[in-house]
Design goal:
Blueprint (H helix, E strand, L loop, with lengths): L4 H30 L1 E5 L2 E2 L5 H15 L5 H12 L6 E4 H11 L7 H8 L13 E6 L3 H11 L8 E8 L6 H10 L11 E4 L4 E4 L2 E7 L16 E5 L7 H4 L8 E6 L8 E2 L15 E3 L3 H16 L2 E11 L25 E3 L3 H8 L7 E8 L5 E13 L1 H14 L6 E4 L16 E4 L4 E13 L3 H14 L6 E2 L4
Parallel strand pairs: 1-3, 3-20, 4-5, 4-9, 5-8, 9-10, 10-12, 11-12, 13-15, 17-18
Antiparallel strand pairs: 1-2, 6-7, 7-8, 13-16, 14-15, 16-19, 18-19
Length: 483
């Protein structure tokens, strides 16, 4: 019997759902038991819903111009689950698409193909040690870093969130801290279980016990009394900015290294992961993850400079308001920031343009910058107005940026959208440092204007996690290698 169009569509949808549901337990076991993170063209599938898995596969057609069906991808995932692999990040869609549509050796079996493409993980042992992590400060970035760590908790997780240090300690404080982790007005509810352990003064989240330590200063804390040793302390306060000031953390017993989640001054390296992480040396004790804006624009600027050369340019940041501003008009030491953030566009300064040079020295002195704070709670945009060394056109430039987002060493930092309807709220929760809005690209010979969206909270926090992994010596490959 011939099926109607509606019946065919329904049958196709049910098939996709079934394959996605069958993928979920395999994806979970690969991560929990082997430390393998499964992605589809950069989209993570660990803890993904069936709908999220289906949508991730739909994105392949947008990039390749050809569908990749879940039934074509499932055998790849199933075969990988039977292999003896060390931890890593595996893009099953890129493997499936290449095997089906780009593999010139048709005599090669899927198993043989995967052994060839995943050889760097095959039959290898994992020698990476676990690292204790302490979050010093538990504001916007601290809580999102905690969320990112907890969604990847388990026996194979190498970063272990052991403690959070905050001021206070008043009655009910522990429950309030837990509640702020459990619920978020912008990013929604926490994906997991959170309970308060009053007796042991801690929070239990997704099987992880996190000690809450109350202290006014790092020198008041002894982490070793909580069996925390050689810890990576992530300073989310922004109180201390240079190497001398941040050294106060080493007065805490049990501190191994310090990461600042703000731009640093002095001799501290400002790291934009994907661009200059090679600057992190094993002996480095203090590192900065730079700013959200610097992380958003530097990868795109690097890609453009490598391909076309940048003579000079201007960066204008349209930035969501932050906790540094006032809700209603009141005194503020900085110009204009005293005016009500939810009611005004506020012209202010940004150090992001000059900070780019710390990660990308070849652009030193070539960029100017300014910022406008706008009445949006999250997600910002950087407008890059650049003069290039080489002339190009809009299609060529967009094609280059799309390929960069998929098949380069910057694929985790740069995302790309061709939507004509996308707005800021659509980017809440984006795990990329920046998202190129291709439909807004302007090119006139050697001049171009690019619009780069970024979730200045969540996207930045994912970059912080990457720097944390590097500082802890956790460096797993992303396969297949498509650079």
């Amino acid at each position: 019997m011939t099926l109607s169009h509606e019946e065919q569509y329904q049958k196709s949808w049910q098939e996709r759902q079934e394959f996605a549901e069958n993928m979920q337990p395999i994806i979970g076991r690969l991560y929990r038991n082997k430390g393998i993170e499964v992605v589809v063209y950069g989209r993570p599938l660990v803890n993904a819903t069936t709908i999220e898995i289906i949508k991730a596969h739909k994105s392949v057609e947008r990039f390749e111009g050809q569908k990749l069906r879940l039934r074509e991808c499932f055998p790849v995932l199933e075969a990988i689950s039977k292999m003896d692999l060390a931890p890593g990040r595996i893009d099953i869609a890129k493997l499936a698409y290449s095997f089906i549509y780009k593999n010139e050796d048709k005599s090669l079996s899927l198993e043989a193909y995967l052994e060839r493409e995943l050889v760097t993980l095959l039959n290898q042992t994992d020698s990476v040690k676990t690292t204790d992590v302490v979050l010093y400060g538990f504001g916007r970035i601290g809580r999102l870093v905690a969320r990112l760590m907890l969604e990847r908790s388990g026996p194979c997780a190498k970063l272990r969130l052991r403690a959070i240090v905050v001021r206070g300690g008043k009655k009910g404080d522990l429950e309030k801290r837990a509640s702020l982790l459990r619920r978020d007005s912008i990013h929604g509810p926490f994906n997991g279980s959170i309970t308060v352990d009053e007796e042991n003064q801690g929070i239990k989240a997704n099987g992880t016990f996190i000690k809450l330590i109350y202290a006014s200063s790092p020198e008041d804390v002894d982490y070793t009394q909580y069996d925390i040793h050689d810890a990576l302390v992530v300073d989310n306060t922004g109180i201390w900015k240079d190497d001398t000031e941040l050294s106060i953390h080493f007065k805490s017993k049990g501190t191994g290294k310090v990461l600042l989640t703000a731009p640093a001054k002095g001799k501290v390296a400002n790291i934009v992961y994907g661009v200059n992480q090679d600057m992190i040396l094993p002996e480095d004790k203090i590192v900065s993850a730079a700013s959200c804006t610097t992380n958003a624009i530097t990868p795109v600027l690097k890609a453009l400079n490598d391909q076309y050369g940048i003579r000079n340019g201007h960066v204008e940041t349209v930035h969501s308001y932050t906790n540094d501003q006032n809700l209603i008009d009141n005194y503020h030491s900085a110009d204009r920031r005293g005016r009500a953030a939810p009611l005004n566009m506020v012209l202010t300064s940004t150090g992001a343009a000059s900070a780019v040079a710390k990660a990308l020295p070849e652009l030193k002195g070539k960029l100017t910058g300014n910022a406008i704070r706008v009445p949006v709670a999250n997600v910002s945009m950087a407008i890059l107005s650049l003069n290039l060394d080489k002339a190009t056109n809009r299609d060529e430039l967009n094609d280059f940026l799309q390929r960069t987002s998929l098949f380069s060493e910057l694929q985790d930092q740069i995302d790309y959208t061709s939507s004509t309807e996308i707005v800021s709220s659509d980017l809440v929760g984006s795990r990329y440092a920046g998202v190129v809005d291709s439909q807004a690209t302007i090119v006139d010979g050697d001049r171009c204007v690019l619009y780069v969206w970024y979730d200045n909270e969540f996207g930045y926090s994912t970059q912080v996690i990457r720097v944390m992994n590097d500082m802890a010596g956790i460096k797993y490959p992303t396969l297949p290698v498509t650079c």
